[in-house]
From TrEMBL:
Superkingdom in the source lineage: Bacteria
UniProt cross-references to SUPFAM superfamilies, sorted A to Z: Hypothetical protein YwqG
One Pfam family this sequence matches: DUF1963
Source organism per UniProt: Rossellomorea marisflavi
InterPro entries from the UniProt entry: DUF1963, YwqG-like_sf
Descriptive protein name: DUF1963 domain-containing protein
PANTHER family, sorted: SLL5081 PROTEIN (PTHR36436:SF6)
């Protein structure tokens, strides 16, 4: 969505600062459909060798694949892997979808795996995942398998990112209030900015979106990179609570080393 002439004019004094935040991002477009074991996907069956130990949650229940990303199928992003499979599993026996509110790096009820190439042939992989059972009384956030199409793009800082104040010198409401003496106009400007700079969508890299606030506002600010973001999406009947969104954040040095044991997992909803 393009910004109105009025908003562009009001932002003119801050344009250099805003443009200076531009970074690349890979946007992920999800289409319902079957996928193969080596493909990027939402839900569905993971690439999983028969010889490997399948991830279980804190109660010993097998976890379900939330997302699998084959970096070899994506445009290249600096500091991100150029190949290999990133897998995220979450508990299907937890109403918070595996997130620990108090310790968001705790992988007791979610798990991140990374598999380097070369991949094993299909005959050495698990093909029947019927042992992963979703109980009727617990809701997994996605009900349909989705294939992933990737698009390299770029974006400037989102309205909810904790670094917003560092860029503009003011919190968002104070910024737009300073642009006009009319409170209603300030509200309208801020609403439009949030709509055009929401950060929503499925993506790797770039800036995150939130329905509440950035969990790094108060801690874990060193987890500066967006490893993966998964939004609510009607295409695959995906819903995080009430139209929410999930984010996974990682430290730059951990990402470069392909170490995924210290990732902040957050989701929120309206």
């Amino acid at each position: 969505m393009a910004q109105s002439v009025n908003l562009q004019a009001k932002l003119a004094p801050y344009r250099t600062a805003l443009d200076g935040t531009e970074i690349p991002s890979v946007h992920l477009h999800i289409k319902e459909g079957k996928t193969g074991p080596y493909d990027s996907k939402i839900a569905g069956d993971p690439y999983f060798p028969k010889a490997d130990e399948y991830p279980v949650d804190g109660e010993g229940h097998p976890m379900k694949l939330l997302a699998q990303i084959n970096f070899g199928q994506l445009p290249k992003l600096e500091d991100y892997p150029e190949s290999g499979l990133l897998q995220i599993f979450i508990s299907v026996h937890d109403d918070l979808y595996g997130m620990n509110i108090d310790q968001k790096q705790d992988q007791k009820d979610f798990r991140i795996r990374f598999i380097e190439e070369p991949f094993l042939p299909k005959e050495e992989l698990i093909s029947d995942f019927s042992f992963v059972k979703i109980p009727d009384d617990v809701y997994f956030p996605v009900t349909k398998e989705g294939a992933v199409l990737a698009e390299l793009t770029s974006e400037t800082i989102s309205a909810g990112d904790y670094r917003f104040e560092k860029v503009f010198g003011k919190e968002s409401w104070d910024l737009f209030e300073s642009m006009t003496d009319d409170g209603e106009e300030a509200d309208a400007l801020m609403d439009e900015f949030y709509e055009t700079q929401s950060g929503f969508g499925h993506k790797i890299g770039g800036y995150p979106g939130f329905t509440q606030e950035d969990p790094r506002q108060y801690e874990n600010q060193d987890h500066a990179l967006l490893l993966l973001q998964i939004d609510s999406d009607d295409e695959v009947d995906m819903m995080w609570g009430d139209c929410g969104i999930a984010n996974f954040f990682i430290k730059k040095e951990d990402l470069k080393k392909k170490q995924f044991g210290n990732v902040v997992y957050n989701w929120d909803c309206s």
